[in-house]
Amino acid sequence: xxxxxxxxxxxxxxxxxxxxxxxxxxxxxxxxxxxxxxxxxxxxxxxxxxxxxxxxxxxxxxxxxxxxxxxxxxxxxxxxxxxxxxxxxxxxxxxxxxxxxxxxxxxxxxxxxxxxxxxxxxxxxxxxxxxxxxxxxxxxxxxxxxxxxxxxxxxxxxxxxxxxxxxxxxxxxxxxxxxxxxxxxxxxxxxxxxxxxxxxxxxxxxxxxxxxxxxxxxxxxxxxxxxxxxxxxxxxxxxxxxxxxxxxxxxxxxxxxxxxxxxxxxxxxxxxxxxxxxxxxxxxxxxxxxxxxxxxxxxxxxxxxxxxxxxxxxxxxxxxxxxxxxxxxxxxxxxxxxxxxxxxxxxxxxxxxxxxxxxxxxxxxxxxxxxxxxxxxxxxxxxxxxxxxxxxxxxxxxxxxxxxxxxxxxxxxxxxxxxxxxxxxxxxxxxxxxxxxxxxxxxxxxxxxxxxxxxxxxxxxxxxxxxxxxxxxxxxxxxxxxxxxxxxxxxxxxxxxxxxxxxxxxxxxxxxxxxxxxxxxxxxxxxxxxxxxxxxxxxxxxxxxxxxxxxxxxxxxxxxxxxxxxxxxxxxxxxxxxxxxxxxxxxxxxxxxxxxxxxxxxxxxxxxxxxxxxxxxxxxxxxxxxxxxxxxxxxxxxxxxxxxxxxxxxxxxxxxxxxxxxxxxxxxxxxxxxxxxxxxxxxxxxxxxxxxxxxxxxxxxxxxxxxxxxxxxxxxxx
Length: 718
Prior knowledge:
Blueprint: E1 14-15, E2 28-34, H1 40-48, E3 52-56, E4 63-71, E5 74-80, H2 92-103, E6 108-114, H3 118-131, E7 135-140, H4 142-147, E8 150-152, H5 154-161, E9 165-167, H6 176-187, H7 202-212, H8 217-220, H9 225-244, H10 251-269, H11 275-297, E10 298-300, H12 305-316, H13 322-365, H14 370-408, H15 411-424, H16 431-440, H17 442-448, H18 455-464, H19 474-485, H20 492-523, H21 545-580, E11 582-583, E12 586-587, H22 588-602, H23 607-615, H24 623-632, H25 643-652, H26 657-668, H27 674-684, H28 687-715
Parallel strand pairs: 1-3, 2-5, 2-6, 6-7, 7-9
Antiparallel strand pairs: 3-4, 4-5, 8-10, 11-12
């Protein structure tokens, strides 16, 4: 018998927030722990396949993932713990991982380590074996270790640590059967690991023994007494109140333990060991054991294997070349996305609008009223067709390209390059990663904000994510820059170059505004200092194209598109009604546009443009079709055959290059689309912060458009 879901790839993650009642699950619960960038998620995805669901830990903002699999007829629930470097509870992730291992009583705990840097990963392994005996070490990325000529004696490592050790290459499914065999045997008691016990300095060992003697059996039945005593000695006042919520400890027991802790602190003080440096001694002992163990089991045939990565990083993360290279790579991705999306977008549009003709024939054949046909076909269906045909191809290109950089290991380098800028803005360095995700889709960027630990800094990243243009806004930016900015050039080649430079300038402006608004938020409604974080630069890895396509298409593209379609369908009906229901001698759309004309003129635009942005709330892709519909008084959305035809229509309705500039600026800085607002509400659980996320970019965009329009008019160059 083998794994039921082996090598099924990455599955759709279904949001089931706070669904964490493990006691009702019938099967064997297994914890999955490890440092970041060890391939832990790959192990999880390879084992569980499509049987996954995600949520948040109860009372926490850290997301979790749980997945089911079967092995030899037995059901297992694999719980993917947050990636951590230790269990010291210095962050929410560390606290969640520690508490789950301590109190949810998993039958086994898999610790995933990186074979290319085993020594560093062993620190977490040794901390977990102090809590529980039922540990299996998964030494992953063995293929990379072999490529770098690193040999690891798996059998010797198992003998030293006293736990089962399995070497794997999870991306290729190698070693996973053996890993699950060890998990099953450890969980059912066929294998009883006896982990290596770290010997601390004699003074600390004596203190541990004294504390252990005061711990009752009611406590030791729930937690490892030695580990519990060690934590009390290390930090009693923070540790005990937290753990009392998990254990039934009487006040008398707490008092007895506290007296013993104070007693050992007095004894340790004689050896210059205070509560402030006891932890250093404990950590030092763990690090020393990890180093000695790694020296015994790891042999490196080529000591210079790291030189290549270092030389690459010296360029990609340098102060001189880091930012320009980053901008250049993003520009290439945008160019490929823009150019590559044109043809499939046209094909998809022909397909979907071909279906529209058949729908119209169907309504005619059944003798339905004209208004019903128009509202469903020309209103709802046509809106959906535009959203899908314009939105799907760019996302299907951008997300795989972006995931390629992620798989390659370049995204952490982007965060490294921008970390200093975000720190000066009192924001979190990881916001650089969430901002990059926003280029593909702001809704995906909002979901990515989960990686930021601090709730304050996560809100800043959420509120400002809309200042980078998503693929839904690129059609507006491309059309305006090509027609009114690039169109001034004498040649076609120069026109394309000027249009590309214009778009890159808009993107850079978006980044600058992101930093500026982040600074303002951190000094006003979200006051606070930026938190520090450890940013590990993972080794460069060979991307796996198959997994990239599955992860980017299923988990990102279709997920975001599904939300967009759900919001766009009812919006199509509203747009049709406004364009076809008359009040007096004009339709509702005309009345609203006339009402907004004064504000639109102040912002360098007109009322119809503002109405197009408002009605484009469900999806930015429909803004231009709504503008065309309004100017042509067609009563339904339509698109012109060429940019020249679009230019003639816009110029005939009073557009100038200043109008185009203001449209691009407002497209960059206005309220998030309906899909993004929905995602913000889901992620924050707050209507207040959803409204703030709506208000901040809108007010910013209006203010900048007013300043730009009035300044150029004052200078007489509009």
